[in-house]
Each structure stands twice: as structure tokens, then as C-alpha cells.
Write a structure and sequence with these properties.
The chain is α+β, with helices and mostly antiparallel strands. It folds into 4 domains: about 5-75, Arc Repressor Mutant, subunit A (Orthogonal Bundle), CATH 1.10.10.10; about 85-125; about 140-240, Roll (SH3 type barrels); about 245-330, Alpha-Beta Plaits (2-Layer Sandwich), CATH 3.30.70. About 40% of the residues lie in helices and about 25% in strands. It contains 12 helices and 12 strands. The chain has helices at about 10-20, 30-40, 45-60, 85-95, 100-110, 120-125, 140-155, 225-230, 235-240, 260-270, 295-300, 310-330, and strands spanning about 65-70, 70-75, 155-165, 170-175, 180-190, 195-200, 205-210, 215-225, 250-260, 275, 280-290, 305-310. A hairpin with a 2-residue loop joins strand 1 (about 65-70) and strand 2. Helix 4 (about 85-95) runs antiparallel to helix 5.
Length: about 325
């Protein structure tokens, strides 16, 4: 049998055919496989296909399953690097992530389909819906994250412009476009947003920055500073204590609530949070938080039956915030 023009690519194309056109529900006979190869300018004999299947199984980690149905023998790819259920789970995570832009979500989902057969890809397409209402609009965010990781690996400081949104929905640099210079130490995901936690040498303290609001990031030649502050820092605990990444004085705060709202506090502070019984079907927690207007707003949003009980100065500040808002509404 004369050899086809793409004969050297035979094994590569065979792998592609089997992975794209077969799965647990769809198989091909040897004759059908030979026809698919012929369409690509490749000739194949039965014995050579048997040898190729062995190479795929033993050397390439592609499981080819042989199945006898009646008088015909069928072949299909079995276990894959990602099972269909896993790909569906990953796609759902991409769809629901506010951090990933709509365009990047579409690109990633398209790439994820390469891990399944063309038949399974059609199933995935039916479930794909990317809601751009909640998606981030800063397309450069992936390069920013990569730059931050590189700086951390190289133990170098970074500089960047930090921005805010204006009424025209444009990102506008703060401080008239002046560059911020910080030592990056770690990235944290909180409430579907990515944050850089870094040391500001000029201010002499740890600060947080929304990654999607950072522009024109570059790595400097200066080594990072602030190592001692991060040396014994429990980063997981730090993120919980500074939830929502709003600045404020860190305090141990007692919050009392009805028992039917306990899941809210476990979801927010984790299963390790200490919950103690109060009276009349109520409980309280003592948590370390960054006391701020945003923290007060979170507590207020839980309803009138949730209240801060101590320390007294935090209770007073909370009441003052409520009174000021009420006075503003009544004016």
C-alpha cells in the first residue's frame, strides 16, 4: 500500500482522531479509523494500528479500549486527563468567576473543550453561558498577576499605577498618574476579587491593592522589604481577619445573633470560629476584624437582630455611624 503524504504524522493524527471522535459513548472500528486517516493523507494497515494503540497506552498515557459488539470490534479512548464531569466543574468555575473577563472566559472555555471528545464538547456548549454583567473589564489583569508572581519569585519590588472608576466607567490613575512602589508578598482572593498584599516602605506598613485596578506594572531592580512583618504572618488567617480587604484598625469584636443565622458567620469566618451560647436562642462570636465603615455595613445588612456587643468604643462608633446615616436621610 503506497504511503500517504503525511505519513510521518500518523501517530499524532491517530491520537487526535481517537481523542476527538471517541469517548465512552462513541467508538470507531478499524475501518473507520483508517478512513479518517486517509482523509488526512495518511495510509494505515491493521497491524500498524495495533502497534500504535500499544504505544498510546504504554508510552503516551492515552487509554484505548477495545470492545467487541456482535461481530464487529470497536475502539475508543477511556480515561482522559480530565473527565467530562471535571471539565464541567471547571467551566462552571470560569463562568461564575467575576475576576475572569468575558473574553478570557470564552477563550478558556474553548480551550477546555479540547480535553473532551467533539460529542462531549457539544454537551458542554449547551451549558455555556457567560454573564458579562458580573465580569471584570480589565483585560490586562492576567499579565498583572503574572508580573506580581514573577516579582515575588525574584524577590523584587514593583511599581504600578493604581486606579479608580470614574462616572464614564473608565479606570483613571490616582495621584495624577504617579507610580506606587511596593514590595509584593502574596496574592489573595476574596469576594471574587484578587488582591495584592504588599509592604509600603514609605508608609512603613502592609497595604492591600485590588489587582484589577493596577495598571502598567513593572518589576524594579530593588529587593523586597518588609520581610520581618510577613515572616510569622498566617496569611490565611490574615485574609479572614481583613475580610473584604478594607482598611481599618484590627480589633477583637463580639457579635451576637440568633441561632438561625449561625451559617452566615461560619461562611464568613470559617468552621474554626468559636461560637458560644447566649440566651433565648441566641449565640455570639468573638472575631478579629478590621473595624471600618464596610464592616459596620456588613453587620447592619444582617438585620436588626444582629448586634455588636463589645468593645464599647466599637459599639459607640457603630451607633454613631447609624445616627449619621439616619440624619442624612432625614435632612
Amino acid at each position: 500500500m503506497p504511503k500517504g503524504s503525511n505519513q510521518k504524522l500518523k501517530l499524532s493524527y491517530l491520537c487526535k482522531i481517537m481523542q476527538e471522535k471517541t469517548d465512552d459513548e462513541h467508538s470507531l472500528t478499524l475501518q473507520q479509523i483508517m478512513h479518517e486517516l486517509e482523509e488526512l493523507g495518511i495510509t494505515a494497515e491493521r497491524k500498524s494500528l495495533y502497534d500504535d494503540f500499544s504505544v498510546m497506552n504504554d508510552k503516551l498515557g492515552i487509554e484505548v479500549i477495545k470492545e467487541q459488539i456482535g461481530r464487529e470490534t470497536y475502539y475508543h479512548v477511556g480515561g482522559r486527563e480530565f473527565e467530562l464531569a471535571e471539565v464541567k466543574l471547571l467551566i462552571e468555575a470560569i463562568q461564575s468567576s467575576k475576576f475572569i473577563t468575558k473574553n478570557k472566559s470564552t477563550q478558556l472555555i474553548r480551550k477546555m473543550k479540547n480535553f473532551v471528545s467533539e460529542y462531549q464538547a457539544k454537551q458542554l456548549q449547551r451549558q455555556v453561558y457567560v454573564n458579562d454583567r458580573i465580569k471584570n473589564m480589565n483585560e490586562s489583569i492576567y499579565y498583572t498577576v503574572d508580573g506580581i508572581h514573577t516579582a515575588i519569585e525574584q524577590n523584587k519590588q514593583i511599581k504600578f499605577q493604581y486606579c479608580v472608576w470614574n462616572t464614564n466607567k473608565e479606570l483613571v490613575p490616582k495621584k495624577d498618574g504617579a507610580f506606587y512602589k511596593v514590595s509584593p508578598w502574596f496574592l489573595a482572593m476574596e469576594d471574587e476579587n484578587y488582591y495584592l498584599v504588599a509592604y509600603d516602605s514609605e508608609a512603613g506598613k502592609i497595604k492591600h491593592y485590588r489587582v484589577d485596578k493596577m495598571l502598567k506594572i513593572s518589576i524594579t531592580d530593588n529587593l523586597r522589604e518588609g520581610k520581618e512583618l510577613f515572616k510569622n504572618l498566617d496569611m490565611g488567617e490574615y485574609v479572614v481577619e481583613n475580610f473584604s480587604m478594607f482598611h481599618g484598625e484590627k480589633r477583637r469584636v463580639h457579635i451576637e445573633f440568633p441561632d438561625d443565622k449561625v451559617s452566615i458567620f461560619i461562611d464568613r469566618f470559617g468552621k474554626d470560629v468559636t461560637i458560644r451560647p447566649a440566651e433565648n436562642g441566641r449565640s455570639f462570636v468573638a472575631v478579629d476584624v478590621a473595624v471600618s465603615q464596610q464592616f459596620f455595613g456588613w453587620v447592619f445588612g444582617l438585620g436588626a437582630d444582629v448586634k455588636i456587643t463589645s468593645p464599647e468604643d466599637v459599639v459607640s462608633d457603630f451607633k454613631k455611624q447609624l445616627e449619621e446615616h439616619l440624619a442624612e436621610l432625614m435632612s
